[in-house]
Design goal:
The protein is of the alpha/beta class. The protein has helices at 18-32, 45-48, 51-56, 92-95, 106-125, 140-148, 174-179, 184-187, 199-206, 215-223, 270-285, 307-319, 332-342, 356-365, 381-387, 398-403, 424-438, 441-452, 459-479; strands spanning 2-6, 36-42, 58-67, 70-81, 84-90, 130-134, 156-161, 169-170, 192-193, 196-198, 209-212, 241-243, 294-298, 323-327, 348-351, 368-371, 391-395, 418-420.
């Protein structure tokens, strides 16, 4: 079986969110299970300038890409890591930018990426069984295939929705302007939602199976909760819309072997290990009292991640008997307010950046993770926190609900975190409850051990994806 992932980000090259972890980790697991897995990814500036790319990438093809009146070229590089082959789509104009997302011409950039990806699949990789598209940036590949395919083409498509808020929306004339496709696909409704071209909607309709990254989030999308209009189309997929809970790269996130943290530890010496990591991190960050519980936020600082809860309550939080570390970047208003309130405080530190090494240190040192997401398809921060014995305090949505068993006085044998219903009062009450819980060493120790015993590897999820791939291929054979 030959599976090709089409994604706008993937480790170890580039990461903005959990999408990068999923594409990389799933591909590695597929290879371990004897499946030929490859990833098509834009060749961003940060990749091209890396020493690994300079030493190991091979230019294997240069393709001509027509985008309506634009005559463009695409350099295709090949790079293999852990037996996963990456096909890197190079174009200086579209991808030699400082940031991965957030450019004014993002739609045009990823239209080029889709056109180039389709050509790589057909002319470079060849004989592909499954094309697995992740989010809107590569969604047009399925529409291009639908338009150009011949009778002997047996490619099957899977779409995974990681973030429903972004759908690839444009005007009807952009079908031709960016993809060389007729407006017919707008007129017949295949690529139309709410009177706009919607690439994600087209990919939903054209995919054999649509997945999202947790069972609860699947149900939320069907019911119109944080679905941004997709509830109008997703129920039509019936049982071909599946929620598969993400896993975690347990080799990278392992407190026993983690090379980034101050002191390694396991379930048997977790209390000593976390104490050492906490003391050293607080010393490094200039925080004063390691006897207080350490709360952390490791997140994009955006509305979706519930950062408004943190901003609305930051003054109350900092008056409580706790320490707080924030690591992340995001919306400027949130960055400015959090930085302002945490500045020069003895019990708070706000680091407006992304640092993989520092994130590992914070997970290992912290007692609690704050994750008040307004919606969370799956979430990775809580999975990492559980692995490091850091108790997540999270809103009861999506994958957070699927991975966290909320503590109460009757379930300390299985509880591994705290869940709250979505409002400011519940959020703050759970923080206050956690501070009290911190003083109850026996219960705290039990919850920490439950957290570290939580199942989080990719084994179960990868087996489910393989089952779905095989189901798609079998359906194709039976339909002939």
């Amino acid at each position: 079986m030959k599976v090709v992932m089409v994604s706008s980000e993937a480790l170890p090259f580039c990461k903005v969110g959990g999408l990068a972890d999923v594409v990389y980790s799933l591909s590695k697991k597929l290879v371990i299970n004897k499946i030929n897995a490859s990833i098509i990814l834009p060749l961003y500036k940060c990749i091209k300038e890396s020493q690994g790319f300079k030493d190991n990438a091979r230019l294997i093809s240069t393709l001509n890409i027509d985008m309506a009146w634009r005559k463009l070229s695409c350099d295709v590089y090949c790079y293999e890591i852990n037996n996963v082959t990456y096909y890197l789509i190079g174009n200086e104009y579209y991808f030699s930018r400082k940031d991965i997302y957030g450019e004014n011409d993002d739609f045009e950039r990823f239209a080029f990426f889709s056109l180039a990806s389709y050509k790589v699949i057909k002319e470079v990789i060849k004989k592909v069984d499954i094309v697995h598209i992740h989010d809107w940036q590569g969604a047009a590949v399925s529409l291009l295939h639908h338009h150009y395919k011949d009778r002997n083409d047996n490619i099957r498509f899977m779409l995974t929705i990681h973030n429903p808020a972004f759908q690839g929306i444009c005007d009807r004339n952009d079908l031709w302007n960016y993809f060389n496709l007729p407006e017919y696909y707008f007129d017949n409704g295949l690529a139309r939602l709410d009177d706009k071209v919607n690439l994600l909607k087209a990919a939903i309709c054209l995919s054999d199976i649509v997945t999202t990254v947790s069972p609860t989030h699947r149900d939320e999308l069907r019911r119109g909760i944080s679905s941004y209009g997709l509830e109008k189309i997703l129920p039509s997929k019936g049982t071909d819309f599946v929620g598969v809970l993400n896993g975690l790269d347990t080799k990278e996130f392992n407190p026993t072997t983690d090379r980034y943290i101050y002191a390694n530890y396991n379930k048997d010496n977790v209390n000593i290990g976390k104490k050492t990591n906490k003391e050293k991190l607080m010393e490094e960050l200039g925080l004063k009292d390691p006897n207080k519980p350490l709360f952390c936020i490791i997140s994009r600082l955006t509305h979706q991640k519930g950062i408004s809860f943190i901003v609305n309550n930051i003054q109350k939080l900092l008056k409580l008997d706790l320490n707080l570390v924030i690591l992340g970047k995001g919306e400027k208003d949130f960055e400015n307010q959090l930085s302002f309130y945490c500045d020069s405080k003895e019990n708070a530190c706000c680091l407006l950046k992304y640092s993989n090494e520092l994130a590992h240190k914070i997970y290992a040192a912290s007692d609690f993770l704050l994750m008040p997401s307004k919606y969370e398809p799956c979430g990775i921060a809580q999975l990492i926190a559980l692995r490091y014995g850091t108790i997540p305090i999270a809103s009861k949505v999506g994958g957070l609900k699927d991975t966290i068993v909320s503590y109460n006085t009757l379930n300390d044998d299985i509880a591994n975190g705290l869940l709250f219903n979505f409002d400011d009062d519940n959020f703050l009450l759970n923080v206050i409850f956690a501070i009290d819980l911190y003083s109850k060493k026996r219960i705290m120790s039990k919850i920490i051990h439950n957290a570290m015993n939580s199942s989080s590897s990719w084994t179960k999820a990868s087996k489910e994806y393989i089952r779905l791939y095989r189901q798609m291929i079998q359906k194709n054979k039976l339909s002939k």
